[in-house]
Specification:
The structure holds 2 protein chains of 2 kinds. By secondary structure, chain A is an alpha+beta fold. Chain A is built from 2 helices and 2 strands; from the N terminus they run E-H-H-E. A two-stranded antiparallel ribbon of chain A has the order 1-2. Chain A is globular, with a radius of gyration of 11 Å. Chain B is mainly alpha-helical. Chain B is built from 5 helices and no strands. In chain B, helix 2 runs antiparallel to helix 3 and helix 3 packs parallel to helix 5. Chain B starts with a helix and ends in a 5-residue tail after the last helix. The chains are: A alpha+beta, B mainly alpha. At the A-B interface, helix 1 of A face helix 3 of B.
Chain lengths: 59, 198
Amino acid sequence: MSTENPYAQYYVVKKGDTLSKIAEEFYGDKMLYPKIFEANTDVLQDPNKIKPGQRLRIP
Amino acid sequence: MRIAKIFVALAATALALTACENRKDPAEKTIAQIESSIAEVRADAEKYAPEELKGLDESVATLKRGFGNKRYNEVLTAAPSVTSAVTALKESIAKAKADSEAILAAAQAEWTELSSSVPPLVDAIQSRVDILSKSRKLPKDVDKAGFETIKTDFETVKSDWTAATREYAAGAAADAVRKARAAKSKAEEIHAKLGMNS
């Protein structure tokens, strides 16, 4: 069982969000969206399918 | 009559000498006891109360000089205050030891907190720095020069944390905690500058 890093950053998906959009907001570069996907494979199966309310870790 | 006076004078001298010799053994024993008491705590005294120990050693030297000059009464008169000083020295050592142990316990407790909070903080920052280093642009609140400063400061944080860990392992808990506390504070600043505490 892994414990959450208290210093990790999290983001709750809003309606209309995409991983690219989130990557652009946090990294300034939408092409870095795979970093967010790879950090959240426990809740995401497809980088193109995210749902509002999902809590994603932003590495 | 004159012979009687001489006899009395001689008798008085002999009595005085005998009395003086009678004080020799107690004086010698008293000095030995004081020295023995000091010897029991000398190592701790050198560490925790060096100034008091120095003063006491000077007092013992004075007693010994008096003994060497056969001033046994003076030795026996001065000895109680030296004995009291030995007692005071022991009390000072006990207090300094207790204070030192309390400081060490506090440092160890703080180290436990630091050693559980700094590594995840460093990991989180490292992850973000690695990703932003690959980014073609930076997020809106971080400019290029600011990011370079962040990277430099972060390298300092990591080396300070490594040094603190090494110092703690070597037994220098208080110094390690001081260094680790500063490293954590700097890391928290970096974390905030990267916009990671939102």
